Amino acid sequence: MFLTKEEERALRGEEGEAKARAMQVIVRVGEALGAERLVEIKHAHISGVSFENIGEPGVEFIESFASLGARFSVPTSVNPISYDVEEPSRIPGLQLPPEYLRWQERALKALAKMGAELELTCTPYYAGVPERYNLKKGDHVAWGESSAVAYANSVLGIRSNREGGPLALAAAIAGRTYYYGMHIDEERKPRVEYSVEGELEEAEAGALGEIVVSLHKDSRPPLIRARFSGDAAVREFLAAVSTAGDLAMAHIAGLTPESPGEEVRERLEVERGEIEEALARLRPEGDVDFVYVGCPHSSLGELRELLDMIGSRRLRAKLVISMSRSVFLEALKEGVAERAARLGAALVRDSCLVVSPFYRFNKGSRVVTNSFKAYYYLSRRGVKAYLARTRDLVSYL
Ligand code: F3S
Q1: How many CB atoms lie within 10 A of CB 206?
Q2: Does pTM surpass 0.85?
Q3: Ligand 1 atom with the shortest distance to the CA of 297
Q4: Residues 6 or more apart from 157 whose CB is under 8 A from it?
Q5: Does residue 147's CB lie within 6 angstroms of at least one atom of ligand 1?
Q6: What is the pLDDT at residue 164?
Q7: Cys-Cys crosslink for 297: which of 123, 142, 305, 309, Cβ 3.0 to 4.6 Å?
């Protein structure tokens, strides 16, 4: 692999042991993939920070870099953790022993020591990150959260591969990642197109994502011709394609801010009936215990729309909505959080029902969501999870 003089110096340890270790990780993975060189990044987003998912070895791994004196070379944000920092019990049923909290806090402390911004969200694009760091179309970043990576590539035109937690951490320290996959122009040009008739709301978009993944065998991103009802539906589609498969991007006609090129050689139509079938198969019969919105983390607009749909009805099921702290603060400022509180809804910051230990404290409970990603992971964690259109969620409340 070609390395610049500066990169070689860092690899030799002339900029400290931590940076040398980070460079070794990046170079080794890049070489294994056949990357010819590295690329400078403007930002990193680290996933794999929830103590529930990474356990003690994961925390110790993060700390091992911090204890070597590592500093992030680029602005770095962080994915959700196991609980709402200010009020862990906002996640229904959660009772966490002090020892558990201490382990999670150790990970956060180490990340903060290295210079991370602790917004703790999977939607850094709703928390002002692109604006704050002037991230623009064509910029290279190393993001770890698969749904955020798909959103960055497909909606913002910001380039990232799906980096695992340790790789995003190493890239943040090195200030570089390997030049491969989504960083390269040609690799972003679709060769297979999928079209679907009619408008798609959030759950429909998620169901479409799963169908596209089941059909898509090409290594390049798919080209999607579909009409989404809004940004939340686009986000749910992208979260679904990155959950059901390993895609890092979908080129969405009319939205993705770059040319798709002229390499499309196959065109497939997804029947509306297939989406209907998926939704009929996944919807709950009878009552549920929880209605969950905000995977990936919700925007303020969505929260407002949901509350408008609910009106002043008394809730039978518990409503949980997860979001970034920034969005929560806006919701507070605009009186939306108070409206939610009056209904008895739980607005969860810093975390979500999937990466928290919610499943351990609510075994066998029934959760309906408009997020394919949340349905997918919760049902694999022993929760009876279902998928429904946003407007239908209200009927379970
Ligand atoms: Fe975000 Fe949790 Fe979903 S981290 S993408 S809300 S699984």
Answers
A1: 35
A2: yes
A3: 6
A4: 136, 137, 138, 256, 257, 258
A5: yes
A6: 87
A7: 123
